[in-house]
User: What shape does this take?
Amino acid sequence: MMAAYSATASFDEVILFEKNEKLGKKVYITGKGRCNVTNDCSVTEFFDSVVSNPKFLYSAYYGFDNIALMRFIEDNGCQLKTERGNRVFPVSDHSSDIIKAMTDALKKAKVKVRLNTEVKDILTETIQDTSKEEVRSLKDDDKGEIKEKPSGNKRVIGITLKSGEIISCDRAVIATGGLSYPSTGSTGDGHKILRKIGHTITDCRPALVPLEVKEADECISMQGLSLKNVGVKLCDSSKKKAIYDGFGEMLFTHFGVSGPLILSASSNYGQYIKKKGIDDAILHIDLKPALSQKQLDARLLRDFDASKNKSIHNVMGGLLPSSMIPVILKRCGIPSDKKINEITKQERDALTDTIKDYTLHVTGSRDYNEAIITQGGVNVKEINPSTMESKLIKGLYIAGELLDVDALTGGFNLQIAWSTGHLAGAGI
Assistant: This one.
């Protein structure tokens, strides 16, 4: 949608082909239906949040950043608000209002939209001979040297629709998304089309996705429990190197863990797997990051002194959620009905150790049906970062989640889509 809008600055006729029955189907489900449209952060914070190939995004982001996007959306009738973590949402909390702003912009720009229209292939032809005019335009005026080669040895001449219809064109933007949430139409069509015409697709895997753990039986007993203000460190199996280190919210599920912290950790986990070729990692959870080990022990002693004749299960309620208490006590080997006045120093030490470092062994991630984004995609070395044009095929532009670019949760991935889409349209 953004690429089509941006392209209207240069072309009188822009056609947007959408295989779904309506535009913005994937936008509709983002942010749990509220659409975390971007993040109102600094430039440095944005690039620090990009996991894969951040430097590739310099031109795209500087050309259409979060400020430009927010102004664009509000100018098209959707008021925005900023919440915790600088996450930006529509004031209405309805993602449909973001889609309406986009579709209204497309209408004003007179973009022709064809719904229920699936593109099957991009048609190309070999460039037989570069014209003298084209070569001359690439030469330095003083030295007569060619500064850069024409884009590839092929060029776009049209597209083929699934219906068999052929549309002639000399410019095309492909922005079909990745593999996550296939029910929204992201079924890897773009990867297939681009691979067929010579582009390299790097290994893809689900990202911003819940993680599965070996200790699923413990997680089942805590299913639905949400923890706030906890520290999480994901380390490789040797425990020597942190893959991810963060602070915030997480959630226990029937298979393992989820929530904002875990989703962000999963992106770094994906990069770890790509480099190491192994799935196992160790998740360290600090349940009381505001307290040092010594302060936590002092807190336990105060609670214990106030309830010496009570069972430990009843006393721990002031420190831990009720569904977590049996899990922690079992980890420490302490019977839940043991009286406080019978708890040994060794058992108290075990409690502080476990509360400060509750560990889970990650065995893998959930699939694309639960992944917010796809990690991997079109090799960015084959794309001109200043225009989003393919270096292999002249007139072909690639944007959004199709590219091997991804970021942490918080609106950053949608901003990548807006920025690269805008640049692709402008690049034309």
